[in-house]
Design goal:
68% of the residues lie in helices and 11% in strands. By secondary structure, it is mainly α. The protein has two domains: 14-47 and 112-159, no CATH class; 49-110, Orthogonal Bundle (Arc Repressor Mutant, subunit A), CATH 1.10.10. The chain has a three-stranded antiparallel beta sheet with strand order 1-2-3. Strands 4-6-5 form a three-stranded antiparallel beta sheet. Helix 3 (67-74) packs across helix 4 (78-90). The radius of gyration is 22 Å and the shape is elongated. The relative contact order is 0.08.
Length: 159
């Protein structure tokens, strides 16, 4: 096994650093889950299934996506995604439009209501838990958190 700059086949030889990395990874996972909780609750209130939510994420990210590309993105059969699109269309969440240059292709767009939700509500839902937590800390603690996360990001970008 090749040793490169204190690492052995991509794994650190320093058990203290390995344990720290595992703790940081667990903490980051817990932070991600805490930040997603309000959005997941809102999605559940909207009674979207997991596949429907996955389809909606892609349609919002790629307005005008074709059914074929959407099927590939969510790794589901074309007929399954077509059925999901039918249900979302009935609920007023998406619109299907024929492609202007090729009438055989159906393009899927989010409705204005969905775009407004994504533009206005999601950022608030995502930031509220973080704002609430940071308000419980001192200005000095907030600065240290911000600096530490920024430095971690820099180190990860260098890797």
């Amino acid at each position: 096994m090749e040793v490169v700059e204190g690492r052995m086949a991509g794994r650190t030889e320093n058990p203290v650093v390995r344990e720290q990395a595992q703790r940081v990874e667990r903490d980051l996972g817990a932070i991600r889950r805490a930040l997603r909780r309000p959005l997941e609750a809102e999605i559940a209130r909207g009674e979207l299934t997991v596949p429907q939510a996955a389809v909606m994420q892609i349609v919002v990210r790629q307005p005008g996506v074709s059914l074929k590309d959407l099927s590939r993105e969510v790794s589901l059969a074309h007929s399954t995604v077509s059925g999901i699109a039918d249900r979302l269309e009935k609920r007023g969440m998406i619109e299907r439009r024929q492609d202007e240059s090729d009438g055989r292709i159906c393009r899927i767009f989010p409705t204005a209501q969905v775009m407004q939700f994504v533009r206005d509500t999601i950022p608030t839902l995502a930031s509220e838990p973080l704002i609430s937590a940071l308000l419980k800390s001192s200005a000095e603690e907030r600065d240290k958190i911000e600096q530490a996360l920024h430095r971690l990001r820099e180190l990860l970008d260098e890797a």
